[in-house]
Each structure stands twice: as C-alpha cells, then as structure tokens.
Structure prediction request, 328 residues.
Amino acid sequence: MVFGGTCVSATFENNLKDMSDDAGLEPVTLAEARQYCRTLAQTHYENFPVVSWLLPRRLHQHFYNVYAYCRTADDLGDELPDPRRALALLSWWRDQLAECYAGAPQHPVFVALKETIDAFDIPQKPFEDLISAFEQDQRVRDYDTFEQLGDYCTRSANPVGVLVLYLAGAHDERNVAWSDSICTGLQLANFWQDVARDLDIGRIYIPKEDRERFGYSDEELRARQTTPAFLELMRFEVDRARDFLLAGRPLVDHVPMRLQIDVELFIRGGLRILEQIEAIGYRVWETRPVIAKRDFARLFLRSLGRTALRRLRLSRRIEPVSAGESET
Prediction:
C-alpha cells in the first residue's frame, strides 16, 4: 500500500483489482488510514491552504478524511485519459463506498472515513452524488442549458458543502440552501476561470443557450476566439456566479464561530476570482486568473477581521448584567 504523495490515480492503478481479484486490498490499521488521508490532504492543498488549520483541532482528521474521499473521486474522473477506465475506477470507488456503509471498509480512505461517518451520522447520498457527477464528466462534454449545468453543480459541488455542514453540526434545510448557493457559485467561478483548460480536455461548461443568446458560435468557441460577443457572454456568466456567492453569504453567521472564517474565506476567494476575470477584461482564453499569495493573505485578514467584529458584537449582546443593574 502506498502512503506517500504519489498521484492518486497512479495509486489506484497499483491497487485496483478490477473487481475480479477476491483478495481485495491490503488491510490497513485505523492509524495508517488516518495518516493516508492526512498526507493526501496536506500535499494537495488548493486555493485556500489556511482553511484546515483554522478549524478546531478535533475536526482536523475528519476534514482530512472527507477531503481524501472527494479529492480521490475527483482525480479518478479527471486524471485518466480513457473515459472507460475512469468509469471503471469510479464504479469501483462506489463499491468501496458501499462496503464502507455496510461496515466492511477496505481502502484506507474508507477505513478512516467510516470513523467520520459514524461520528457525525452522515448519510451516503452526498458521497454518492459526487461519484455521479464525476461519471457524468465522462459522458457529457457540453451542456445545452443552464438548468442542466445547475443539476451538475448540485452533484459536483454542493455535496461538499453538505458534508462540511455535517462536520460543523450545522446541517439544516436553511443552511443547506445557503451552502448550495455558495458551492454552485464557487463551481461556476472555477468554470469561468478554467474555460481554456476545460476545452483542452474536451469539456465545455458555458451553456449552449447562453452562447446562442450572445451570438457566440461553436466554431468561434473551438477556435478560442475572443470576440465582443464572447466578452459580453463572460460578463453575464461572471455576474451570475457572483449572485450565487452573495446569496449564500448569510450562512457565515449561522455556523460555529471557528468555522465562520473558513466560509467567508471561500466566498471571498470566489469573488476574487470573478474580480480578476473582470480585471483582465474577461479575456480568459488568453489568461487564466489565479489568486496570488498576497491576495490570499489580504482575503484571510479581511475574513479574520469580520469574524472578530461579529464575535465582539455577540459578546456585547450577551454581556452579563453588572451588579446593581436591573435584569428586566
């Protein structure tokens, strides 16, 4: 069993038994499984590397476990050039998930994840939804309508927010609605950030109905032409993504205090990506906007400051009555 920082898909290529080998995976201890997830998370940080150590220490390993599941499923959908092979691996990953919920986890990710599932009573659906979305990536390369793209986001992005709410002890219908809005907004921001990269692997996430509305042809898209129509199209998509992010902002005030910085940081990060797309005049064919380290530091400090202010306001509201004052 490999427990290093190797490519996830390469690890699976070594460990996959193609469902024909009854021997299964090499057994691991819970301690080894935890380390596997921790190493994977710590070597695959993406836009927001500070998030994990802002969390309460008791949640660190649980976030590593969930992240390892999501990251691996995502890599299985994106890292293999052959869609048939990707689908086979994703099907195997689903079988591993079923084994986990049946009480017999095999792969180290699931040995560790079962502890998290049991501790927070997490249902199987959000994990299943993610696999479904990554399977869809192998079959669907273009979207006719935004409704179809939105359905994809409900399975490719929103389940991550749902899982975080379970870990935070803040899962309810209202919070899920705000979380879904944030996660969809982040997914859309990522799409508009990676228009060129996605086309490199044959995927188009700008809905066809939107392209037609602004007069941007399929031929112009595949030729990566920056036309006035394309710039207006991207302006529209950026505004739409921003609306989703801002609509979910109330969630910040309805999660535990220690998680508020994390939630706000993700919202601010998504908004910053959109601002950078605007700053380059929506010319995402030529330039991929990224969040620089100095931008991240600024976002973090702003989020930290806003959370401190909220904490101060809360402490004032619940400040105990001093001696001699009436409690009426």
